[in-house]
């Protein structure tokens, strides 16, 4: 059964879906030096507003956008929901923790159930009025692609005709910043994927939600179609608590599984949206993986130089940009790269060209590997 995408809702530091796409093509970055927490130093961040956003607010905004884009009205009682986040409502829990170590009399936990990791999925289910399945995957930076893959399977197996899927992340919190700083993973000035002088990752806020439907349902209601989900690959290195395996074995299996499920050869991929975090280790590992599996010098770019790293939402945002590339037949540039040390065919300037099939990569902490293939319908 063919599974197509009939709606996209996206919000990040570049703006909405259309705003983000235009800013990407103009090679603009939404990353700015910010100091949202007075107890911490200034960092380059990809904030949506002037201060860190909240997960529930971001969920509501992006879900409303995707329903409008797909021309759907609520309630949608038979619509599945697969909406993930790697951090969830962590900001609320950090606030609880600070109160425990300060004025305990001010601690209010009456609504703590509303801050559990699955809150984004629950909030979305309530907003659309569904009584169907509700899933809330959490797989570090691979969360977004994992969520879309689960939704794809639910439709392919005939369990649902329509599923809303994606990921939401509001990761700019004191603990998240301090943690990545202690690991030596944060950049000092900006995000420069695959660049010779890259410094590390830049945290960004963002979300992307897709409406997936069976092709039969989409065509019957005259829906506009962005593209089609072709297949996916999910693996885990299981070798280290945070670092990826240096041999690329598990990541290679994820790519090959995706190609096999999609009935594709490597040479049939026209564009890869790379994970491209701008860290020394990830970019070197990913470049080696692409060079070994795609010898035809496929076009590659990472958009994190413009959006920052939205952690669990990054794969869903990357998939959305792949769908835009398929629809508009334009290659989005790798914003931030000036001089690369890798033999990749990096898209340094946006340009038009034939894009029939694209892949999106996500590689998360703990060796979580997720790959998805998308094509024109």
UniProtKB/TrEMBL annotation:
It comes from Hydrococcus rivularis NIES-593. GO terms for molecular function: 3-oxoacyl-[acyl-carrier-protein] synthase activity. This is 3-oxoacyl-ACP synthase. The keyword Disulfide bond does not apply. SUPFAM superfamilies: Thiolase-like. Gene3D superfamilies: 3.40.47.10. It comes from the Bacteria. PROSITE patterns: KS3_2 (PS52004). Belongs to the thiolase-like superfamily. Beta-ketoacyl-ACP synthases family. CDD domains: KAS_I_II. Keywords: Transferase. Pfam families: ketoacyl-synt (PF00109), Ketoacyl-synt_C (PF02801). The keyword Transferase applies. Residues 1-376 form the Ketosynthase family 3 (KS3) domain. GO terms for biological process: fatty acid biosynthetic process.
């Amino acid at each position: 059964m063919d599974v197509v995408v009939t709606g996209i809702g996206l919000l990040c530091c570049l703006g909405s879906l259309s705003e983000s796409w235009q800013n990407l093509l103009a090679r603009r970055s939404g990353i700015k030096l910010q100091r949202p927490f007075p107890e911490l130093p200034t960092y380059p961040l990809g904030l949506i507003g002037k201060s860190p956003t909240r997960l529930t607010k971001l969920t509501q905004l992006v879900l409303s956008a995707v329903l409008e884009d797909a021309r759907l009205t609520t309630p949608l009682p038979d619509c599945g929901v697969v909406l993930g986040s790697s951090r969830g409502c962590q900001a609320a829990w950090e606030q609880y923790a600070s109160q425990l170590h300060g004025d305990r009399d001010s601690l209010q936990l009456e609504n703590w159930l509303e801050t559990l990791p699955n809150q984004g999925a629950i909030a979305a289910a309530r907003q659309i009025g569904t009584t169907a399945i509700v899933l809330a995957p959490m797989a570090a930076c691979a969360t977004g692609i994992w969520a879309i893959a689960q939704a794809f399977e639910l439709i392919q197996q005939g369990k649902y005709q329509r599923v809303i899927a994606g990921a939401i992340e509001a990761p700019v919190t004191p603990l998240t910043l301090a943690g990545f700083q202690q690991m030596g993973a944060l950049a000092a000035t900006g995000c420069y994927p695959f660049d010779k002088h890259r410094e590390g990752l830049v945290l960004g806020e963002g979300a992307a939600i897709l409406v997936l439907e069976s092709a039969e349902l989409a065509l019957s209601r005259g829906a506009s179609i962005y593209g089609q989900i072709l297949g996916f690959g999910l693996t885990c290195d299981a070798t280290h608590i945070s670092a990826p395996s240096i041999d690329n074995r598990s990541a290679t299996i994820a790519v090959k599984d995706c190609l096999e499920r999609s009935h594709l050869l490597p040479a049939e991929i026209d564009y890869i949206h790379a994970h491209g975090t701008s860290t020394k280790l990830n970019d070197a590992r990913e470049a080696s993986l692409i060079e070994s599996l795609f010898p035809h010098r496929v076009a590659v770019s990472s958009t994190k130089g413009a959006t920052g790293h939205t952690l669990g939402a990054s794969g869903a945002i990357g998939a959305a940009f792949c769908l835009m590339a398929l629809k508009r037949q334009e290659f989005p540039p790798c914003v931030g790269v000036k001089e690369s040390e890798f033999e990749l065919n990096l898209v340094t300037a946006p340009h038009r060209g034939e894009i029939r099939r694209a892949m999106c990569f996500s590689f998360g902490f703990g060796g979580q590997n997720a790959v998805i293939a998308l094509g024109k319908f």
